[in-house]
Amino acid sequence: MRLKNKTLTGVVQPLSYVDKMLRLQGFSRSAGDATPTYDVVMYDSASSSTYFLRIPTNFANTTTGKGELTVKLGHPYLEAKFYMNSASEEVFFIPKAVREAAEHKLAEIADYLSSPSAPS
Length: 120
What we know:
This protein is an alpha+beta fold and 120 residues long. The chain contains two helices and six strands. Strands 1, 2, 3, 4, 5 and 6 form a six-stranded antiparallel beta sheet that branches. This is YugN-like family protein.
């Protein structure tokens, strides 16, 4: 499920700053040396379900004054975590409380990352 967050999507910041900020918020980086995607696991105790909140990035065509790579944040999305032994292909509904928690987390991250210049 794609989440709408106009203040976060499209933000361009140095990779090191994005990486540090998202890790401080509990995200982990995937994709190795490729364009990074950041994931955080969200557990909903009411439904005993686990979800992934993902923020994809793309390398931007700009660098910082120090020659550091910059990344542009893509559209965040939320999805249910499925187990390999699940043969069911039913559509899973993501509870409103989980969606709202994800949106609040994204708003907090946007506050940090949308500043015109990231602190060193």
